[in-house]
Design brief:
Blueprint lengths: L1 E6 L3 H11 L5 E7 L2 H9 L8 E5 L2 E2 L7 E2 L2 H11 L6 E6 L4 H10 L3 E4 L7 H12 L21 H11 L4 H8 L4 H15 L2 H10 L3 H16 L2
Parallel strand pairs: 1-2, 1-3, 3-6, 6-7
Antiparallel strand pairs: 4-5
């Protein structure tokens, strides 16, 4: 069973989304949250551990009943999830925004998918079908308008965090402790597979010719991609 938290201030949309998701017997919505403060309280609590996926609106009011919407609230929640509470499961942004800058911020903060909610009625069934696959982690879902923004390819949020830690000079022992790998060797083995995702055959040939390390080249490429995505 995949357990899902929905953070969405549009009550009608949230209920439609919940009904559509729960038509699948393997998916369960554990909670609906409608404001920034509620979301922060939730992710600080033990309840977060029961979630396998978060569907996150970008634009949220500060508190329940507040009519003023903060366009960066979802990004702030996402950053808390990834970098404070170490939530490395699936986070998919659902938003009305078609602004490239919002997609770039969401990617930099560590989302696994980005879907614009503005869809024609005829497109809703296919959108929901794709969303369900993304919830299970089978695809990375990206709105058509944002596909030029998403450079991470098949790098997961946890792998992205590993690359960020490597860029900070962390050892495999430190990385294994932070990301929950059993040993430093296990972390290094995962890291080697991540490097292979980032490095092209040309990159690998260059590393071999120069007697360098895949780790250094992969981190260099990762930092370059992140810099490009936030310009």
């Amino acid at each position: 069973m995949t357990r899902i938290l929905i953070v969405e201030d549009d009550e009608d949309f949230a209920l439609i989304l919940r009904r559509a998701i729960e038509q699948d017997p393997d998916l369960e919505v554990v909670d609906l949250i409608s404001s920034y403060e509620e979301a922060i309280d939730y992710i600080k609590s033990p309840k977060l551990a029961q979630c396998d996926c978060v569907l996150l609106d970008l634009q949220l009011p500060k508190s329940s009943g507040d009519r003023t919407v903060n366009s960066l609230a979802g990004i702030q929640i996402l950053e808390q999830l990834r970098h404070v509470y170490n939530f490395y499961k699936t986070v998919i942004v659902l938003t009305n925004s078609k602004a490239a800058a919002d997609g770039e911020r969401a990617l930099a903060a560590g989302c696994d998918g980005y879907l614009c909610k503005r869809a024609r009625i005829a497109d809703v069934p296919s959108m929901l079908s794709e969303l369900k696959m993304a919830i299970r982690g089978d695809v990375i879902i990206v709105a058509a308008q944002m596909r030029h923004v998403f450079l991470r390819d098949d790098i997961s949020a946890k792998e992205a965090r590993m690359l960020d830690l490597l860029a900070l000079g962390k050892s495999w022992t430190e990385i294994s402790q932070e990301l929950g790998y059993k040993t430093s060797k296990a972390a290094a083995n995962i890291g080697d597979r991540v490097f292979d995702k980032l490095l092209s055959p040309q990159d690998l040939a260059l590393v071999a010719a120069e007697g360098g390390k895949k780790r250094l080249k992969a981190v260099e490429i990762w930092q370059s991609r992140k810099a490009s995505s936030t310009k």
